[in-house]
């Protein structure tokens, strides 16, 4: 299986590049952000709980997102592989993901980290907020919270995957197609 963690701060371009990678490598796309927004749209209890946190730009509890990923893995036993987008976001999530994949006799192939500076991220998110309808993209203080959460809890995962020799940094600034080519080269 080809199992890719697509990593990077909010606004790094994970969603855009995931869509292109999914098509080229025939992978299943698992975005915890999309799954959570699906729960909110469906009005579930889980969605209601998550919404309060997402609206503040803070992470939802590990158990919630790990449970969602577990059931998606169980629902797709014949997948050729997965792109994990926006997951894992904490060391506990990364450890849980390793355990879930080990149970299925597979593992993470590589972590591709899109690198984009903070000024560019804020600019992109505010731009996206104009038509995405995402309230967390429309307020600079919420964006700042998301970037703070990323730096505190998520950025350390680069070391987690580097220790397994799976970390690959990719310049996330430039033409979408050029970034896509760099990702494909890194996948090899
Ligand atoms: P972005 O990468 O632009 O922040 P996402 O859609 O990935 O967008 O995430 C939106 C929000 O959903 C996050 O700010 C967080 O509240 C919640 N979220 C998504 N994935 C996770 C996760 N793996 N762990 C905890 N919270 C998450």
Q: What are the key terms here?
A:
188 residues; binds adenosine-5'-diphosphate; Rossmann fold; alpha/beta; 5-stranded parallel beta sheet
Summarize the structure.
The chain has a single domain (2-179), classed as P-loop containing nucleotide triphosphate hydrolases (Rossmann fold, 3-Layer(aba) Sandwich).
Tell me the radius of gyration: 16 Å
Number of domains: 1
Structural class: alpha/beta
Instruction: Indicate the CATH topology.
Output: Rossmann fold
Largest sheet: 5 strands, parallel
CATH superfamily: P-loop containing nucleotide triphosphate hydrolases
Helix proportion range: 55-70%
Average pLDDT: 96
Quaternary structure annotation: single chain
Bound molecules: adenosine-5'-diphosphate
CATH architecture: 3-Layer(aba) Sandwich
Overall strand count? 5
How are strands sequenced across the largest beta sheet?
A: 2-3-1-4-5
- Cα-to-Cα separation, first versus last residue: 14 Å
Please, how many helices? 9
Structural shape = globular
CATH class: Alpha Beta
The portion of residues forming beta strands comes to 5-15%
């Amino acid at each position: 299986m080809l199992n890719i963690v697509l990593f990077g701060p909010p606004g790094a371009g994970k969603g855009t590049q995931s869509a292109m990678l999914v098509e080229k490598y025939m992978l299943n796309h698992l975005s915890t952000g999309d799954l959570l927004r699906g729960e909110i749209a469906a009005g579930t209890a889980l969605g209601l709980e998550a919404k309060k946190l997402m609206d503040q730009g803070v992470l939802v509890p590990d158990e919630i997102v790990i449970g969602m990923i577990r059931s998606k893995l169980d629902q797709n036993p014949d997948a050729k592989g997965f792109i994990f987008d926006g997951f894992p976001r904490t060391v506990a999530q990364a450890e849980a993901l390793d355990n879930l994949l080990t149970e299925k006799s597979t593992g993470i192939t590589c972590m591709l980290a899109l690198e984009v500076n903070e000024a560019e991220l804020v600019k992109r998110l505010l731009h996206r907020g104009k038509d995405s309808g995402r309230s967390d993209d429309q307020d600079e203080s919420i964006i700042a919270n998301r970037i703070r959460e990323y730096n505190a809890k998520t950025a350390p995962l680069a070391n987690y995957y580097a220790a397994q020799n799976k970390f690959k940094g990719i310049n996330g600034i430039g033409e979408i197609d050029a970034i896509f080519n760099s990702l494909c080269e890194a996948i090899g």
